[in-house]
Amino acid sequence: MEGMYRFESINDYNILNNHKTLHPLVNVLDLSLANPRDWDGNKKVRLYFGFYCVFLKEFKGCDLRYGRQYYDYQEGTLLFVSPGQIMDVETDGQIYQPIGHVLAFHPDLIHGTALGQNIDSYNFFGYHTNEALHISDEEREIVMDCLSKIKYELNKGVDKHSKKLIASNIELFLNYCDRFYDRQFITRDNENKGVLEKFEAKMKNYFNSDAPQKLGLPTVTYFADELNLSANYFGDLVKNETGKSAKDHIQDYMIEIAKKKTFNTDKSVSEIAYELGFKYPQHFNRFFKKQVGYTPNEYRMLN
Prior knowledge:
By secondary structure, the protein is of the alpha+beta class. It has helices at residues 10-16, 107-110, 114-118, 137-156, 162-187, 189-207, 211-215, 220-226, 231-242, 246-262, 269-276, 281-292, 296-302, and strands spanning 2-7, 26-30, 44-49, 52-58, 62-66, 69-70, 77-81, 86-91, 99-105, 133-134.
């Protein structure tokens, strides 16, 4: 059996986890206070969240899945969920007790704040669950300190300062998470290099096949999917490892192929454009000139 549970408001999630609603748009929840889960006997459930959630928890008796990937959950791991996301939970049918903490905040809380303007810059809200943030004991202490400051403000009661102080503390917390992810990219250097090597191989295979004619120009999302990564995580990984965006890498690879093809005088510019996945030759001409400084025909004559 499979069930669907929707949490549109913070209050909905508070009720599930036996917490009072101290503020309608935000809460820090201790999941050890929640009743043991049985999900009405369903072994597979889908959880819809209408707000942002950051989980610091240990799942026992269940597996988390988001998209196509199972979540390799460990104690001291942070998972980020944005409004509209659905999380799959699979259990063995037995009752289990959730453990950990959750920061839940509604988008309405941060409207008109600095955090509201910058929330889209925290790419980890678009990562898959298997790309979660694994933190050290020292980093966990920082996380808990940030959550305790937010909880303090909630317990003080709502006043004219509450929104600003809570939003500022959430922003501080997310900025620390940004730093921790940068550290994780570095400490997982070998795994990252493996991804880059596969990325290069995927680009080579793409342009050595008829994929450009069938699918058009490749995108960052296409290669991320091929590597079973979210586009956000893949893009951040490539940028952290190389200093260049994944899109720049794709375009650099394309332009090198385009340069080689221009030496083949048997092919027209239109034919080359089609082989690379461009629908219209004029788009290829503009792309080539922007990257090289010459049109394909000018480059051909120069060389």
